[in-house]
Design goal:
- The chain is α/β, with parallel strands linked by helices.
- The chain is about 45% helix and about 10% strand.
- The protein has 15 helices and twelve strands.
- It has a seven-stranded parallel β-sheet with strand order 3-2-1-4-5-6-7, with helices on both faces. It has a five-stranded parallel β-sheet with strand order 10-9-8-11-12, with helices on both faces.
Amino acid sequence: MRILIVTAGSRGDVAPFTGLGRRLRDAGHEVSLAAHPSFASLIDGCGLGLRPVPGDPQELLRGWSRAATRDEARALTRAYADGLAEGVADAVAAGTDLVLTAQGPSPLSRTAGAAFGVPVVGTHLVPSVATAEFRLPGARGADGPEPEGNLAAGRAVERRTEAAFAGAVTRVRAHLGLPETGHGAPEDTGPVFHGYSPLVIPRPADWPSRAEVVGYWWPARPDEWRPPAELVDFLQAGPPPVFIGFGSMAPGDGERLGELVTSAVERAGVRAVVQAGWAGLGGSGPTGPDVLAVGDLPHDWLFPRTAAVVHHAGAGTTGAGLRAGVPALPVPVLTDQPFWAARLHGLGVAPPPLPFRDLTAESLAAGITACLAEPSYRRRAAALASRMAAEDGAGAVLAHVSAMDTNRRDLL
């Protein structure tokens, strides 16, 4: 079966789908990812095909930070959405029997699937269906008392997800010859598999039967990857370090953050491995005998070798830290990150979140100290990791795909 996985955004939006894609490939399916060209080496290194879609999310974030007015920011967003819409349509048009789609580009994926008669299955990394049990990631403000407020806030998130690409969907529907209006509201979508552990966020009882929580899709490790010798030497030279990384956040702010991190590490009296990320924390960033700056590398290799992980609480990094069984200090910035940060604290594996806007050398040092000083954080993290190890999130998706493939063959 030819399978196309559609995703867009930062590395954290792509890496989990390399694990899911490889699992499907190993079962005999032909798998490609529709993703931005900047991830070509990652995708190719995992033995998967790439169908490139236009856009550079890193440049989009930088453009937003430089935009003088809301109109300028909206123009940048529209250009990005239009390019992504055309790219998704072209990727589906190139031939596939099934589309698996991340949450963000799902309106585009459903539109292209409708145009070319291809079934579309949601594969989402965050809770995406409104529920009365909790507020979806990204929910804004107060919408009344729980549980009614939770449900109302969740439905507002669903509408915003659709609205983000509404203009692009209208234009691409016209380009593909589809009617001006049609199915596409959240309640009209097909199956949705959520790729995180039910031990972290249990499946809400009021979700429709089409929505499942199946477990994490762990990123695949590129076939030729080997740990850098400098990193191996650093790890062997002293006690386990703290990992510090902010992923795709604060692009171009590396010098300021680097100085802050260096000072915090000295204040906390720890060793640290600092990941550059989009902020550019390497180079002119953190320095010193107890600090090593690194680029992108597999979290499943590094995190189990650390004392704790300090991160922006993106969905993928949150899962990687939980898998490693180490405590965390979440430093959320935006979108779904406050949601995951609060959940880490609620699970008892992290101290209270340290919002990025409140980040100083003093607050970071205090957060690291608090994370390491409380033994229950590590104990609970290890226990949760042990239970999560029994889950097979990719296997649940594979079983569904295999059933679809059998039905498809029976109809041929």
